[in-house]
Design goal:
Helices cover about 35% and strands about 10% of the residues. With about 325 residues, it is an alpha/beta fold.
Length: about 325
């Protein structure tokens, strides 16, 4: 059994999901099918990941095999930066639904508080970060769309029955204060990078104060970023003595210890893996408990080390300096 997190509307979101970021398209359908067969009932997707059609194939195969019903499965996706204008929010959501083969999403998130110039589906999908990749020096082109206008269009998706709930990713405390000042339909979930090197204590406390559930992406820290040259092997939290010590005491892997720490903090987690054998390991988190000393020791590892930072990677990879965190 997978524990759940109760949202403000009473919905139960599975506390462990499969993150689909960086899963190769030719592996996605099979991995999604394997995950559902292993007991996963939470899939975390996004248009930008470029594998929603394949994920949808895996979901259809799972339904056909009788592994679960639609109402048993929690599916999250995200609005990409190029579709922030109100005219583009519904078409973007409908494209995601078509690719996934679903009638509705359980949760739809604003992927980044970054509005980029629109790229038509027929021209390039997913459009990624550059407006014109063929330019001599391609850059991100910013579109002047307010977050409040985007949010109003997200609210319409709920009213139109395309999504059950809406939320945000990569928002700061200041943006949360602003959002709750104008939202007619309140966000259900905040998804942010969080791991022992980036504990985000104040942001998590504020989210709880607003009644927001929190999903931690990249819950294992550096692992997802080494291959992108955005982290080094030395950045891994899995070799920290407090983590390996808890792993030895509980006879669990260091990754299970870090994921369990996140769950005991009250956050959901969406670890990514391309390996079938790791699916079960990442799900086997509910028959052991970290003690107070271990929890405190892991939390004390905080370095405010953010791996997914547009203020760094946008300039390095997309020739555009665009920080969203101070």
């Amino acid at each position: 059994m997978v524990a759940t997190i109760t949202l403000a509307d009473g919905a139960l979101m599975p506390a462990v999901g499969l993150g689909l970021w960086k899963i190769a398209g030719d592996k996605t359908a099979g991995l999604v099918l394997d995950a559902i067969e292993a007991g996963y009932r939470h899939l975390d997707s996004a248009a930008d990941y470029g594998n929603e059609a394949e994920a949808g194939d895996g979901v259809r195969r799972a339904f056909a095999a009788g592994l679960c019903r639609r109402e048993d499965l929690w599916v999250t996706s995200k609005l990409w930066n190029t579709y922030h204008h109100p005219d583009h929010v519904r078409p973007a959501c409908e494209r995601t639904l078509k690719d996934l083969g679903l009638d509705y999403l359980d949760l739809y998130l604003v992927h980044f508080p970054i509005s980029l110039r629109y790229v038509d589906f027929a021209e390039r999908y997913p459009p990624e970060w550059f407006f014109d990749p063929s330019a001599e020096r391609p850059v991100m082109e910013i579109a002047p769309v307010s977050l409040s206008d985007t949010w109003a269009a997200m609210e319409e998706l709920v009213e139109q029955g395309l999504v059950k709930r809406i939320g945000i990713c990569n928002y700061t405390s200041g943006l949360l204060h602003d959002l709750f000042a104008y939202a007619r339909i309140r966000p259900a979930v905040l998804q942010v990078e969080s791991h022992p090197y980036l504990t985000q204590e104040a942001l998590l406390r504020l989210a709880r104060q607003y009644g927001l559930a929190v999903t931690a992406f990249s819950p294992l820290g550096a692992a997802s970023y080494v291959e992108l040259d955005m982290a080094a092997d030395a950045d891994s939290v899995l070799t920290a003595p407090v983590v390996t010590g808890a792993a030895a005491r509980l006879r669990r892997s260091p990754a299970q210890i870090v994921l369990r720490w996140a769950l005991q903090r009250g956050t959901a987690v969406i670890p990514k893996t391309s390996r079938k054998e790791r699916l079960q390991e990442n799900l086997a988190l509910f028959d052991f408990i970290l003690n107070e000393e271990e929890m405190a020791g892991i939390s004390a590892l905080n370095r405010n080390r953010r791996f997914n930072d547009p203020g760094v990677f946008c300039e390095a990879a997309f020739n555009t300096f665009y920080p969203i965190y101070d």
